[in-house]
Amino acid sequence: MSFRSKQTGWQIILAGLFLLLMTSSAFAQQPPTCSGCGKTIVGSYVEIEGKAYHKACVVCAECGKRILGQYGSKDGNLYHPDCYEQAHAPRCGVCGEPIVGQYVTLEGQAYHQDCYRDRVAKRCVVCGEVIQGQYIEDGWGGTIHARHHETVPRCDSCSRFLAGLSGTRHLDDGRSLCADCWRGGVHDLPHAERLMGEAQRILGEAGIGLLTPLETISLELVDKQKIATIGGVGGDTYGVHEVESKRTSDGRVILEETTIYLVRDLPEEQALAVLAHELFHVWQHERGADGGAAQWREGSANVAGWLALQSRNTELARFLLEKMDEAPDLTYGTGFRRAKRLYETRGKVVFLERVLLEGKR
Ligand SMILES: [Zn+2]
Ligand SMILES: [Zn+2]
Ligand SMILES: [Zn+2]
Ligand SMILES: [Zn+2]
Ligand SMILES: [Zn+2]
Ligand SMILES: [Zn+2]
Fold first, then answer.
1. 328 contact partners, CB below 8 Å, separation of at least 6
2. I need a surface site. Which of 21, 53, 116, 185 has the fewest CB within 10 A?
3. Does residue 359 have a pLDDT over 60?
C-alpha cells in the first residue's frame, strides 16, 4: 500500500508489523529499554526499525491505541495506516480532508482532483470549460482558451475579456466598455475640464509649463471615429489637438485658437493621460517644435501621458503603464520607450532640450 502523489512523487511504504519477538536474555549484558514507555524490558519484546518495545507499548501516535497490523512511521512515531493519513497526508485546499492517491498541486497547495476541477481550476470565460492546454489571460483574472483569441470581445480601455461580464456598455462608435471603465468614465465636459487642469499641473511640476492659458483652450468630447477624421498632428487614437490660425491679409498670424478633442467616456486615468499627451503637443507647438520625426514627437508626448498615469495609483493606471511599456507600435511604443529612457537617465532638462531639437528639424 502506498500514497503516491502525481506531482511530487512522495511515497510512503507502510511496512507490515512483524512481531519480531525476542527475549531480553538474547542480550547478554544490557536489557533493552522500551522506546514506548522508557522502562527496562524484561521478557519478550518487539523490535521495530531497530527499536525495542513492550508489545503493549506499540501504540499509534495519533489515536493512542495499540497497533497490531500494518503501520506507518514518521519522525520516530508509529501510526495506524488510517491515522497516518489523518496526521500526515496532504490536506486538500478546498475540502480540508486528507488526500490519498493522486492529487493536484497549485502554488504549493494540494487538492483532490475533483475538488480542483470543480472549485480551483481556471475556467474559460467564453465556453466555461476547464482550461487545459494553451490559454490567454487578460490581466484582470479573465482566462480564455487560446482558440477564442480572435473572437472574444474586450473592453476598449482596459482590454478585459467581456465574455461573461455584466454591465458592459456598447457605444455608438463601436467601442465596448466594461462596467468598471464605464463607471470611472469621463462622460461630461466639466469632468473633462477638471482633468485637463490636473494634466496641466502635472506637466507644470515636470517643468513643462504652457504659455497658452488653459481657459483659452477649448475642449470637446467626441466619438472615437471623429478623432480619425479630424486628423491633426500624429495618429493619436483617443485625442487630438488642432490649432487654427487667424492671419492678417499679409499672412501674419494674429490669433491662434487651440482645440483639444478627447474621446468621450474614457475612464478617468486614460483621459488624464490623453489630455497630458495633447497638452504636450500644445507645448511643442508654442515653441515651434511640433515638426520632426513622428517617433520623437509622439514618443515624447507619450512621456507626458506616462507622467500623468504615474500620478494615479490605481489598477487601471498600472495596467495602462504596463501596456505602454509593451506597446509594439514603432511611434507610440518604441519611440515612447526611447524618450522615456532619456527622461529617466538624463533628467527633464536634457529631455526637453532634445524634444525641442528634434521637433525643429
Ligand atoms: Zn513499554
Ligand atoms: Zn491510530
Ligand atoms: Zn478535497
Ligand atoms: Zn473556451
Ligand atoms: Zn474596462
Ligand atoms: Zn500625439
1. none
2. 21
3. yes
